[in-house]
Amino acid sequence: MVTIRDVAKESGFSSTTVSIVLNNAPLSRYIPAVTKKRIERAAQKLGYRPNQFARSLRSKRSHTVGVMVFDMTDPFCTLILRGIENTLYQSNYLPMLTDVHNEGSRFERYLEMLLDRRIEGLIVIANWLFLDINLLADLEKSSIPIAMIGCELKNDTMSSVIVDNEVGGQLALEHLYSLGHRRIAFIRGPKGLTDSSPRWRGIRNLAKQSGMELDARLILDLPESRDPLSSFESGCKLTEELIRQKRSFTALLAFDDMSAFGAIRALTKAGIAVPEQCSVIGFDDVATSAIYTPSLTTVRQPMESMGASAVGIVVDGINAVLEKRDVATTHRKVAPELVIRDSTRNLA
Amino acid sequence: MVTIRDVAKESGFSSTTVSIVLNNAPLSRYIPAVTKKRIERAAQKLGYRPNQFARSLRSKRSHTVGVMVFDMTDPFCTLILRGIENTLYQSNYLPMLTDVHNEGSRFERYLEMLLDRRIEGLIVIANWLFLDINLLADLEKSSIPIAMIGCELKNDTMSSVIVDNEVGGQLALEHLYSLGHRRIAFIRGPKGLTDSSPRWRGIRNLAKQSGMELDARLILDLPESRDPLSSFESGCKLTEELIRQKRSFTALLAFDDMSAFGAIRALTKAGIAVPEQCSVIGFDDVATSAIYTPSLTTVRQPMESMGASAVGIVVDGINAVLEKRDVATTHRKVAPELVIRDSTRNLA
DNA sequence: TCCCGAAGTTCGATTTAAATG
DNA sequence: GCATTTAAATCGAACTTCGGG
Question: CA at A33, C1' at D3: how many angstroms apart?
Answer without folding.
Answer: 13
